[in-house]
Amino acid sequence: MSEVPSLITLCIGAIKNAILDENGNLPYVYKLPSELFDRLLPHLPPLALQNLQDAMPSVSSNDYWFSDDCLKPSRKRKRFENFDIAWKALYKSRWSVIQKLSVDFLPEDVQQDEPITNWQQIYWEKHLQNCLDAAAEMVSITLFDGCLGDVEIPDALLKYISYEGNLSRSRSYLKLAYHCERFGLYARCLRLQSVHCVAEIGHLLRKSRLEFLEVHWIKSKEQVEGLCKVLEQNKETLASIEFIHCKLPASLVTAICESLHVKDFETNVIKNFSIKRSSFLDSSYFPLPLGLESLLSAASGLTSLVLSDNHMWWKTAKMVFDTLLDTDSGLQVLDLSENNIAGWLSHFKWGSPSLINSDRQIDKYLKSLRVLNLRSNNLQKDDADCLKYAMVYMPNLEVLNLSDNPLQDDGIRIFVPYLVKKSKCDIPLAELYLDNCELSCHGASQLLKVLSALNVPLKSLSIGDNHLTSKFGPSLGKFLLSGIQALNVKGVGLGSSGFSDAQEEITEELSLVRINISDNCGGIRTANFLSKMISQAPNLVSVNASNNWMPMESLPTICSVLKAAKGKLEHLDLRQNTLCNKGNIASLLAEFQINGKPNILLSSPAASIVLYDNDP
Ligand SMILES: *[C@@H]1O[C@H](CO)[C@@H](O)[C@H](O)[C@H]1NC(C)=O
Ligand SMILES: *[C@@H]1O[C@H](CO)[C@@H](O)[C@H](O)[C@H]1NC(C)=O
Ligand SMILES: *[C@@H]1O[C@H](CO)[C@@H](O)[C@H](O)[C@H]1NC(C)=O
Ligand SMILES: *[C@@H]1O[C@H](CO)[C@@H](O)[C@H](O)[C@H]1NC(C)=O
Ligand SMILES: *[C@@H]1O[C@H](CO)[C@@H](O)[C@H](O)[C@H]1NC(C)=O
Asked: What InterPro entries does the record point to (predicted)?
């Protein structure tokens, strides 16, 4: 940056300042010759770029576009493209997108498949979010008690948009109100904290058309009133709303839900509704807040309902389920994880006709439900039994998550008839999660035997963190032949003998795509198992073998595994193995990578070494 400025650079500098000043002559900038105009854009700070773009002569008025012969439609398009390129560069330089970096290395033709991004829109959306976050921090640190719109934005954020050390040019943009009013219309997706939810927020965000809103830490009536204004203003666009860490008595839940669907709302706008890590304070008096009940009944477009980690009890869960069933809901994802809802479905067993054993027709279904997440709900044997009856109402379920429930062997045994029946249906179960369900080797082996014999095999099974011991080896090996594509047996205590027994059983080609065998203390036998598995699983893409006590001596085997994988394996996690202590392990293994594949994760006692697939 220490080069001698050229005449053009000086010109650009002068124009830039004029643009930042918004001195009324902006339309004339469009009369600049294209060479200068096009070179100007990449040098403008965001605020100037915005000023210039706002002053763009409208397409219908001929004054500027067509006064100049060189501005043919193709040129016009080019001009829009140049703005877009400038916004993209600004976005990337401010929030360098680390996780997406690899995309930049892809060949041109692949990159064209990137979804079309409106960089100007996401630039200001994210800037506004940064301003809101900074304002929230300011308010909580300084106990500021004026108007929210008057909170001053830190210089660091202002410099991003004006590049100026001297911010006295225009005082208007020092305050949050300026940013909300000017850039609010670009916000589709915002996160609000409790301090934002004041009466004024509706006015500040009056121009935005939000599609996704995340709300944190609200608990008072005033906050809910402020929020409800925003909800009402965005009734035509707001598709997803998520509450996190909120304390909401039933009356407030009702107020929120009513602003989402009463008052002439389109009932099909809201798609995702979520309350997480929150509490419905008086749930024993109002197990299901009336407003929520009517929202669930009315919102015909609702596809995902998440009520997770809300100290919810069985009665609320029951009423949610019954409401959805009664209204013939089109819900696709129901997540009730991390509550305490044992007993929630008992009426399906005791109250209604025994549906599995009779021909009686049922006329209500959750016909669209694909994913049911009941993880960590203290569900036990009896719940598995009742679930079996309730499952009939969910004919299209594909993903069932029962992890972290003390179901034990008995619970699974009771549930097995459902799995068998389900595999004969049009839509069989594809993914089953039973991690940490207190299964024993016997119970898990029985389950795997049934699953192996199903008409349509499961695609994915997760039974990690159950104490299955090394005796589980043979069952595991046999099950691998069943056609399973993804398997998690993390931390089941396989040990050396478990791995070698499993290896013995691998006699045919496997359909396996990903497997997690981490935390199993398999030692050198883990490597032998891997070697056998790789040779029989042509589609294998991902292996997690971390924390298995694999010693230095397993290195030759691992090398031959990599050689056999011929670059088809994409991920291999070898962290927390003694093997990693070898000094030059990373470079030794790197020799077997083809086009950077697989990604090999290693750890060392000093620092963890990571081989990325695009390591330059
Ligand atoms: C900031 O800019 C104003 C006018 O644009 C000028 O009067 C003032 O001296 C500048 N301050 C500094 C510290 O450069
Ligand atoms: C709703 O949530 C699902 C995940 O549950 C997500 O895939 C989808 O994009 C979300 N829809 C909207 C409109 O935000
Ligand atoms: C199910 O639970 C497991 C943890 O056992 C979690 O990793 C997974 O994301 C969950 N899946 C679904 C679809 O809820
Ligand atoms: C198991 O390993 C896979 C990668 O192979 C990973 O995606 C998954 O999160 C792991 N599961 C657990 C429970 O750690
Ligand atoms: C492999 O599994 C371990 C848990 O055993 C987990 O911590 C790690 O994140 C997994 N690795 C990958 C790449 O998912």
From this structure: Leu-rich_rpt (IPR001611), LRR_dom_sf (IPR032675)
Ligand found nearest the CA of 17 = 1
Please report the atom of ligand 2 found closest to the CA of residue 304: 5
> How much is the pLDDT for 495?
96
Band of pLDDT at residue 170, cut at 50, 70 and 90 = low
Residue of 487, 488, 572, 601 to test ligand 4 pocket, by largest number of atoms within 8 Å of CB: 488
Contact between 444 and 468 (Cβ < 8 Å): yes
**Residue 268 to residues 238, 331, 367, 428, 549: CA-CA distances in angstroms?**
10, 12, 17, 29, 54
The ligand 3 atom at the shortest distance from the C-alpha of residue 401 is: 1
List the alpha helices (DSSP H) in 31-112: 34-40, 46-54, 62-65, 73-94, 101-104, 108-111
Residue identified by tokens 């650009």 is 12
Structure confidence at residue 115 as a pLDDT band (50, 70, 90): low
Pocket test for ligand 1, best of 17, 22, 168, 174 (most atoms within 8 A of CB): 168
Q: Which domains does the chain have, with CATH numbers?
A: 7-59+70-94 (no CATH), 303-438 (3.80.10.10), 446-616 (3.80.10.10)
What pTM value is reported for the model?
0.88
Distance (Å, rounded) from C-alpha 492 to C-alpha 77?
60
CA of 172 to the centre of ligand 1 (A): 16
DSSP class of 266: -
pLDDT at site 167:
55
Query: φ, ψ for residue 414 (rounded to 5)?
Result: -65, -30
